Amino acid sequence: MKTCSALRRNVVLCYAHATFASGFGFMAPTLVLYWTNHGISVPEASILEGMFALVLATFAFPNGYLADRKGRKKAVVVGSFLLLIASGFYLFCGEF
User: What are phi and psi of 66, to 5 degrees?
Assistant: First the structure.
């Protein structure tokens, strides 16, 4: 019984982390500061954020379909790998 309550606690903590870290958008202001420090203006940063939102909305449906067909774990692994590749572009892109 103790394990079950620990798992429930972890689920609650995971949802709380997702809400506070992702739901409130703490990443966007940090990225804008990073980009402005590397020569990208605020309007250009807004365009990048808009493009990110568009890509995110575009791939939300195929990711759900993949999760239904192949399993949630495989979809999360594929999504994490694609996020790693996309984040790697930030390291090698020096201008808008």
Answer: -60, -40
